[in-house]
Amino acid sequence: MFRKKPQIKPAAPLRSSDRRKLADQIIDDYQLETATPNDATPEQKAGVTTAHTSLRSSLLPDNLQSARFTTTHGPELKKASGTVYIGSHEGEDGRILWFQLEGRMYPSVYTLWRHPDLVPLLHTHEIVIKKLQGGADLMTPGLAGGPPFPSRARKGVVAAIASMDRPSVPVAVGVCAIDVGALGRVQGAKGHAVESMHWAGDELWSYSPSERPGKAPPEEIEGWARVLDGSGLAEETGVLGLDDAEEEEEGGVALDGEDKRPSAEEQADGEHAATGDLHEAETVQERKADTPELTQPEIDTAFRNAFLYGVYHYQQTQPHAPNHGLVYPLSQSFVMSNLTQPFLPAFTPEQSQQLQIKKTSWKNIKKFIKHMDKQEKLVKSKEKDGHETVITDIDFTAPAIREFKPYRLPKKETVAGTALGRGEKATEAIDTGDDAVGQKLQVLSYFKPTAKLQPLFSAGGAAIAKHQQILTPPEVRELVTAYIEREDLVSATNKRLVKLNPTLGNAVFDGTSSLDKEVLAKGSVPRDALIDRVLHAMAPAYAIIRQNTDTTTTTTTNPKPKSGTPPKIHITLETRSGSKTVTKVSGLEAYHINARPLAEELRKVCAGATSVEPLAGAAKKTEREVMEVMVQGPQKEAVVKALERRGVQARWVEVLDKTKKGKGR
Prior knowledge:
Sulfate adenylyltransferase; 665 residues; alpha+beta
């Protein structure tokens, strides 16, 4: 429905009473709350009330805004209008969380990622997901992972759709056109199963008040995975093989071999032959035949080695940074996307299909982290918020890490480099005389106590006075821990709890939020929650420095910390003069990169014109100019490769593709 950009009017804050009323409507419509027994005690009723209030805030946060929108819908492009509800949870960007059409509320994928089991979850193959992301409806033969299907998936019910490759991650929202839960088989069936309303990749997903690009779907969502485990569907959300189908009484594969249903991979190969590209189809089959099937122990070993490589990479590239540039706690998504996945030895698409966490003996990243803790003794981990396991420390002196030997990894080719026949070399073959090439960068995070927190950090007298100006996260933890022990605030019954005293009550928990009121009412708080709250209340600062420099002095390559959060390097793709695309890069100065040598390299690599101009309005008169590099063509990959040569990590880069506005994604 939102394949093309809707017209969204300016958003306005929603009144608290309207927000509560709307949240209660959602809770009632989606049956999210159980009835309170008539014989419930006052304590039980109070607990139910607290849970209800918490559910309201989770569904519709306090900062919720609403805006009217108009768009077109259906093959006849009928006009449709409704309301979008925009909000953000702590530490996240503002996103459209719900949208309303004809009085009915629909969750966005961002809401589904936070609220497992909000709606019934259906599954289909990855190649079908790509069709859904073009605006197509889910047809009945495209259903996978059943029967049986979720019993709640009745006609007219809002449902979510996930890929078989990532069964715990909803990527589309729609309305059931039939009673899916009653289906006994899908082979040979016809007609629509789910009418698509919204998906990850559409204009609703990409909308942000801050104009940030849409958030990519996670690799796994723990809550949805538990829902699948509990319903017995977890094992069914794998690609249905011929042997599995033959065991079903009314399976989707004929036993006589005359009506065999192709697998998802065979369908993908068939797309090449159906379009006349027979040579490509044969090449795909030959490549698959040459790729040996990995055993589970081999996949386990690959993931273990990849994690060791990831830790080794941080240790080698940031030897002087605290914790080698890692900021604890490390979330599950960070461990997967930054410490493991980039270091898997996947040289072909077929190997990438095999090297997936769900095909290991651990099945998910949570159990993998626990294995690294309990069996390998390489990390320390803990449960966070009851549903996520985070790494709180890594033993860089462990023999497995200390004796690790790097292995060959797949080389990322840039589009431009391959097109010019440079293949793997790409930008490595270009010598621009740029002293930033080969540099190793560190982005260090610091925190400065605000005036409100000064009593907490100055209570120690001269012993900690030197730390009052700027602190690293480990230093904050150390000082807060020292304060707790000095004031004898550790609970006698639970060592993880900290008793509140007047200083903590006034400086940290001031009662402005519902969490503050709950903590003040209990009179205690978990130690980790206290430290996280102190960090959140402090003023952030950062420093971007070149490695192998003296961190005790201030130089041009080792500047003093600046207030705020680290800036990003911005890569923007725009359309100019009708259909011509240009790629613009800015924000290089903070990372010690000279714009002109970079432009010269991109000119040679991309075989296109480049220019360097001051970025209008980006710097004050007293500051040096911020330069912007522009290169012809969609050259994002070439730019990223050139930045990697200059020590810039992907997480320090933000890409905005303006060429896709108003088009299907």
